[in-house]
Amino acid sequence: MTKPETKGGGARWALFAPALLFAPCAFVYAVFFIWPQASLLAISATDAAGLTLAHYQRFAGDSYYWEILGRTLGLGAAVTAITLVLGVPTAYLLARVQSRWAGFLLLLTTFPLLVSAVVRSFGWMVLFFRDGLLSHGLMALGFADKPVQTMYTMAGVIIALAQVLLPLMILTLHGVFKSIDRDLEYAAMSLGARPIVALGLVTLRLASGGIVAGSLLVFSLAISAFATPSLVGGARANVMATAIYEQAIELLDWPFAAALATILLVTVLALSLAYGALLEGRGEREAAR
Hints:
This protein has 13 helices and 2 strands. The chain is mostly helical.
């Protein structure tokens, strides 16, 4: 009688052990992610009279907030494109370089992550003012006849955010390129492919998952950034994050601020899912050929 009971107890423990191990993670996820998001949604859909969609109707009926949403998405797309163009070759070279200085070069590339985004934004402000280094440099090179004001423009915000988020793109792609065997490129070149063709057909295709992950990471951080757009862009380059801050802190309209945050979150999730599904479907179609 003792052995069957022991076996039954062991079987029950085997069933409950994974749940017990997962419980702390589930608790943290529920407390720090699900509950805040649910609270945000509840605030955005209620008022003194109860449930309402008035805050969402206010957004839908005001072209000003549609313009802000479009500007925010355009900012995310531009920053993602810049970091991809600069980050892919940099990460590839750092992953392929055969030198004892490779680790130091990677550290040097990602060193800006050790500096606060606020501090870096203040640095860009010094460069972007009408009497800043950028303006004097453009005039000295003959590209401008008078001082150039890059502060309080979307161009300045895009440049500053791209510099802030570029190390994250490089770090993400560096690990991906490092895990791809270089002999695969040599094999493609031995079959007649040029180096650039082998890079595109082999390495970049294998790294597509990491490129998607890095793009989504940079895009989500760019459209939700507050410090850099607020300091470098100011009121002339208003985005969703600064609009949410204005409604919540300055105007104390928390329900509408929550509605703006919910709309931004849903838009980002929808675009991310569509982007991932599009690239995944493209990969499957190419694999089927």
